[in-house]
Amino acid sequence: MSTGTLDRMTEHLQFLGYEIAREGELILAKHPRKFNVVMKPVGGGILIASFFTCADEAKRDRSGYLEMINTLNAQAVLARFYADEDSDLRMEAWHPDAYDRHTFSAFMELWDHDGGLLLEAPKVERYLK
């Protein structure tokens, strides 16, 4: 994996208004109006992820929670959504180890689109904090 790709993606996120922090290979990107993201090298590319803490209702109504996640996955263009071992929600997408300004811009637009699906998901307030 090229550190140049990760560095250029990080610079692009800064241009989009993200505040960047580095922890080893991890890039932590915080934004005042968008979901925070973590980027890390995985499988010859970059994994971009956002994490959301589940509410107790997600554990009590597991089938309803998973139905919401399945609906998100059916509507998402780029991202995949899943419940981790603690039932917290993860939103992830993988980007190849190549940076192009236009391609990464389109990638981030689709990322934001898919994140918007989460905000509109029925019962999301029941399942996430």
What does this structure look like?
There is one protein chain. The protein is built from five helices and six strands, in the order H-E-E-E-E-H-H-E-E-H-H. It is α+β, with helices and mostly antiparallel strands. The chain has one domain: Yope Regulator, Chain: A. It is elongated and about 45 Å long. It comes from Thermoflexus hugenholtzii JAD2. This is Putative sensory transduction regulator.
Structure summarized in a few sentences:
The protein has a six-stranded antiparallel beta sheet with strand order 1-2-3-4-6-5. 43% of the residues lie in helices and 28% in strands.
Layout: helices, strands, pairs:
Blueprint (H helix, E strand, L loop, with lengths): L2 H13 L3 E5 L2 E5 L6 E6 L2 E8 L3 H5 L1 H14 L4 E4 L5 E8 L4 H20 L3 H4 L2
Antiparallel strand pairs: 1-2, 2-3, 3-4, 4-6, 5-6
Sketch the topology as an H/E string, one letter per element: HEEEEHHEEHH
Mean pLDDT value: 97
Give a short account of the largest sheet: 6 strands, antiparallel
Uncertain segments of ≥5 residues (pLDDT<50)? none
The strand count comes to 6
The helix tally amounts to 5
Strand neighbour order, sheet with most strands: 1-2-3-4-6-5
* CATH fold-level name: Yope Regulator, Chain: A
C-alpha Rg, in Å? 15 Å
**Outline type:** elongated
The tally of domains stands at 1
Label the structural class.
Answer: alpha+beta
Percent helix range: 40-55%
Classify the beta-strand content into a percent band. 25-35%
Just name the CATH architecture: 2-Layer Sandwich
Tell me the span between the first and last alpha carbons: 35 Å
Protein name: Putative sensory transduction regulator
Organism: Thermoflexus hugenholtzii JAD2
Pfam families: YbjN
